[in-house]
Every structure is written in structure tokens, then in C-alpha cells.
Amino acid sequence: MNTALIEAHGLQRKMAGKPVLRDISLNIRAGETLGLVGRNGAGKTTLLRCLLGLAFPDGGEARVFGESAASMSAQAKSRLGYVAQGGDVPALLSGKELLDMMEGWQPNWSRPWANELVQRFAVPLQTRADKLSGGERQLLALVLAMGHRPDLLVLDEPVASLDPVVRREVAATLAELQADHDTAIVFSTHVLSDLERLASHLAVLEEGGLPFLREADSIKQDVLLCLIAGRQGPVARPEHDGILSWRPSGMGSVRALIDTSRLSLDVLRRALDADIESRALNVEDFVVEYLQ
Amino acid sequence: MSAVVTRYAWWASPRQSAVFILTLISFLVAQLVAQGHVSLGSRAEWVWEGLGVFAAFGLFTASFMLLGKGLMRMAALARAETAHLLPDFRRRMRDGVWGWAALALLAAGLAAATLPSGTARLGLVFVAVTCCVGIFPSSLDQMLRTVRGRGYDRHGMWIAIPVVMLQYVPGAWGITLQVAGTVVLLVWVFRTLTTRPEPFSDGFRQAAGRVRMQSSRVGVLRDSFVISAAVVLACMLIHRGVTASQPFLAYFTMTSFLLLDPRGADTALLRLRWLAGASRMQLLGLGFGAASRNGLADTFAMGLLLAIIASFGGLEWREAMGLVCQFALLRCAFLFSGLCWVGGRLSYGWICARIGFHLAVVLALFMLHDAWQTALGDEYLAAMAVAASALVMHAAAFAAVGVWRWRRLEL
């Protein structure tokens, strides 16, 4: 049975008395890639840190490889790779020193693979980490996170500072790692093209909650963007979990995201007595529409 | 051997380790020569003696570079969120701290075994204080804050103060107490490192801001006054005479501090621990160090404190006030010369150049002091004359360097 590599049950977290995570539950299995999106301040980084035990939740539980995230064993940590937001690499050590250190510290570290990653991403190794540019530091962080071919890779906005060429290279490398080793990947991003390229699952974080989590393919198949115009005037939003978003679009019409696997357009058309124009969406368009 | 180094000294930079080993070898050779195990003729015995002392200071400097940098590297690793997800990270940090402490004690032990007792004691205290609130306060603070998941922590300072005071306890008891104090400090650091209520507090980035704020001048001044008060108290309780090596030691340790920690203002005032029983030359040495790195207000405040503390050692108020003026003058000279310094940065070449430059300056000052005292027949006037000479020397040297760099930039 394909068990969850990382899972969360009812995660809650408050910061300065304000809820940042509200009852988040998810699980990721080997070979899956979860793309996490949300507006700035939605709680993406907090969620990832709670999932890894870097921040303690106020409620609920996070487990990694079946162990509590707060007290992961060395064995579990040796199967894990993590890139923090902004490429949080220890300062004062050069890339070479860090790679040497990882070779001694990570039991599964593969020097040839790490060297290949360095070549692919063109990471300068002789420069101290704190002297690298933001993009170079992020690439070094990726090498350090991937050099031991982890079973689980958690990436917090891993490509935010990268140019388009190297971003594509990183995406290809992640895909290769996943294909060869069945690695599970969880990543947060604002670069929506990466979602399309990498994510098998998409999660949208909104005000600390996780209102949307499903397979990326099902979005293309089932979710339609609908322009709804009431025949008798403006239409009110009906209560139905097949309606993913609903917002006025001017002239009395409404733009809505409809999950057609739960609510057929014919049923909606009849219920609202409205004309409905619809079109399919790719993942990128869906996220933009959903977050607006 | 390799496994031991990998486990306990992973924090050591290869380049600084090489410098440390070379210096250690030089130190041992110099000691063998100085103690007569290797005979090189008695023609210039004092030269070898001097070289022995110089090698000892070299060892101090190399140790502090290695240990200080190592501490910074450990702190950098502890600060990085990703590092906490490395397998056995806490054990490795713990091993690293033990290795670091062992090397620190080794360096102090060598000093204790070979240098005069006063210096040895100071060496032990130096290591102990370095461990806690010494030359790398911000790094240590950040490391501890990170590991403890809390804000700024100054408990170490309160442990360090009695250890600082212990240097004034004479004889074997003094050394024993200092070793015990050092162990207490190390245990405190170790316990702090191994306590992890939460790796990163909620306001991690805000906390960084708080640390910067608390490391500011106000905080340093406040703490320095507390430490100074402790030193004054110790001085009043047990006053000790000046040993021959103390002026050199004060100067070199000061220089090492300043070279290793460019943000000298953070720690300059903590160095007042040497001042009980300090000679006028020591004070001048400290003044040069302070003036070369710190702000005018710091320097002036330091001069004032020096004068107050030194007055317990028998300095007259006239001399004390003169000292304050000298400090302010020195700082003005450095401010002026600093204007000529374009784009200076800390590098090995720069450190060596500064060590050489300061060595030349301090030797010249000693010679000048003797010459002025003979000529003027008054120790106070001689000290003033030395200060004036030093001011001119520093200003001229820095102006020359500044002009040279300016012209290079022009090219």
C-alpha cells in the first residue's frame, strides 16, 4: 500500500493571537507533487514549517514518514530535503565546504549526483554562501536539498529568484528525480507555470484554510469558468459545494468556477434561470480566477 | 584522527586550521629555544625570549581566529532553518561545541604551561569570556537565540563576570577557580545549545531586529558599565601589580579583538577587565585599539571609564583627564585618516598588514616613551608626547595608504 510520506491532521496555528492555519488536513504519497499556492500572507510558509516540525502547531498533528514532525528521527531526516524561502543556506561557509559537510552528515549523499547538480545549475562553489546572489544561493540550497536523492522534497518558493532558463532546468531536474526515485514533492510557489509543469495535485491556501485540494488533471477535466447572466435580473449564489468561486462581473452577470463533477451546468442553468457561457481552464488560469 | 576531526572539529576552517597548526609549531619551537632545550647561542638571548613571547601571542591570535571563526560558523549553521532538518544535527552541534571547548582549553592550557602565571590566568579568562560574551557576541547571541527559540539572552554575561574577577585571585587557587569558572561557562553554553523548546520562534525575523537593537551602543554601554563596576570592585578588593608582559598582552589581545571583530563597538567596552592595575602604556595601547575602530562617543566614554578605573590603581586625576583627552584626540585622528581610507575590507593580507603595522607602532611607542621620559624627565609629559607622536604616526600612515588607494582607484 502506498502510504503517506507527509500528512497533516487538523493543523492549527496562531500568531500573535490571530489564526494563521485553520484545521488543515492533507497527505502526500510517493511520486505525488503538491503545488501550494495562495496570496501573500496566506500561510504557505507557516504550513510548510509546521509540516516539517520547524514550527509547532497549536492544534492538530503533522507526521513525516509516519513519525511526529516535532521529533523526527535521524533516519527520517536523512530521507528528507528542504529548501526554505529565499534559499536559507548557512552563511560563512562556501558551497564546497557545505557539500563536504553534507557528504559527512547525510548518509545517502551522492557526490557524483551532487556534482552533476552543481554543473547543471552552474553554482559557484568557492564563494561564501552569504556572498552569493539570491538566485545562486537558492540554487545552492536546491543542490543541498537534492544531493542525497530524498524521498520527500519540501520546497518553499524554490524558484522565486531564478531566471527562466535555470528555472526550466530546475523543473526538469525535479521531474527527473521524481521519475527515477518516486520522490514526493511539496512546493509553494507564485510562479504558476511551474504548477502546470510539475504539480500532480494543487492546493489553494486562503486565509489559513485549505478550501481547495485536488488533482491537477481534474481541474482541466471538471472545472469550468462560467459567465452567468440571469434572465430575470441579477442572480444570487446558491449554496452548493460544486460552486468553487462566485463574483460579480458587471452588468448583473457573475463569473463563477463550477466543478462539473458535482454540479452540472444544466442543473445550474435551470435553478438560476440564467444563460451560462463556459470554458475550460488550465491550472494557471484556474489559480488566478480562484484567488481573485 | 580524520574521524575525530570530522566529528568534533567540523566547524574549523581549513585555512585557519593550517595557520593555527603552523603557529602552534612555531610556538613550541620558540618555547624549546627559550627554555634552553635547543641551544642557538646566548649572544642574543633576549631576542629568543622576545620571539617566544611573540609566538605565544601569535598562538593566541591564531587560536582566537580559529575558535572565533569556528563559533561564527557554528552559529551560522544553527541560524539556518534547513540545518535543523539534517540528521543528528543536535548531536553534531553538541560534538562541535565539545571539540571547540577542548581546543579552547588546550590553547589556554598551553599558555598556562609556558607563560608567566599572570598571563596564563588572563589567557584562561580570555578563552572563557570569549566563550560567552567576548569577541563574537552577536554570533553567539544569534546561535543561542536560534537554538533556544527565544530572544536575546544575556545570562552568560552574569556568569562571565565572576570568572573575569577570578583573574585577580593570586596563586594556584586563582588558576583552579578560573578553570572551574571556565567549565561552568562551557556547561552553560552546552546546556543552552542542547535545550530546544522550539527551533525557531514565531517572530524569528523580528527577533533578529531586536538583537540588532540590543547590540546597539546603549545596550553595550549599559553592560559595559556593569562589567566595569565588577572589575573596579575586583580591583579594589585585590590589587595586583603590573607584570612585564601585560602591556604587550593588552595591546595584542586588543588588536586581535579588533581585527577579528570589525564591529568593535559592540565589545570594546567589555575589554575593561584588564584595566585594574594597568600601566599607562597599556591604556595607550587600548586607546589606539579603541580609536581605530570605535566611534568618537565610545572612545570618549571608554577613556573616561579607563581614567576612573585607573584612578583606583593610583592614577592622578590630572593624568586621568589627560588620558581622556588623548583618547578623543586619537579618535579624531582616526576619523580624519578614515576619510582617506576608501573601500577597505577585512582580508588575511589586511590582517597581517595591520598586525605588522601595530607591532611596529607599539615598539616605536615604547622606544619613544623611554626617549621622551629621559628628555622631559616627567612620566606624564612623556606619555602625552607619546600620544601626540602616535597620533601623527597613525594619521600619516593612514593618509599615505588612503592616498595610495585613492590613486589606484583613479587609475
Describe this structure in words.
The complex is a heterodimer of chains A (292) and B (411). Chain A is 33% helix and 33% strand. Chain A is an alpha/beta fold and 292 residues long. In chain A, a hairpin with a 2-residue loop joins β1 (4-15) and β2 (18-29). With 411 residues, chain B is mostly helical. Chain B has 16 helices and no strands. Chain B has helices at 2-8, 14-34, 45-79, 89-114, 117-132, 137-148, 155-166, 171-194, 204-214, 217-237, 246-260, 280-293, 296-312, 317-340, 348-376, 379-410. In chain B, α5 (117-132) packs antiparallel against α7 (155-166), α6 runs antiparallel to α9 (204-214) and α10 packs parallel to α13 (296-312). The A-B interface holds A 15-16, 49, 52, 54-56, 72, 74-75, 77-78, 80, 82-84, 88-93, 97, 101-102, 104-107, 130, 141, 144-145 and B 6, 10, 13, 69, 72-73, 76-77, 79-89, 92, 198-200, 202.
How do the helices and strands line up, and which of them pair or pack?
The complex is a heterodimer of chains A (292) and B (411).
Chain A: E1 4-15, E2 18-29, E3 33-38, H1 44-51, E4 59-64, E5 67-68, H2 74-77, E6 80-83, H3 95-105, H4 111-121, H5 134-146, E7 152-156, H6 164-181, E8 184-188, H7 192-198, E9 201-206, E10 209-215, H8 216-222, E11 223-230, E12 243-250, E13 253-259, H9 265-272, E14 274-280, H10 283-291
Parallel strand pairs in A: 3-8, 3-9, 6-7, 7-8
Antiparallel strand pairs in A: 1-2, 1-4, 4-5, 9-10, 11-13, 11-14, 12-13
Helix pairs in contact in A: 4-5
Chain B: H1 2-8, H2 14-34, H3 45-79, H4 89-114, H5 117-132, H6 137-148, H7 155-166, H8 171-194, H9 204-214, H10 217-237, H11 246-260, H12 280-293, H13 296-312, H14 317-340, H15 348-376, H16 379-410
Helix pairs in contact in B: 2-3, 3-4, 3-6, 3-11, 4-5, 4-8, 5-7, 5-8, 6-8, 6-9, 7-8, 7-10, 10-13, 11-12, 11-15, 12-13, 12-14, 13-14, 14-16, 15-16
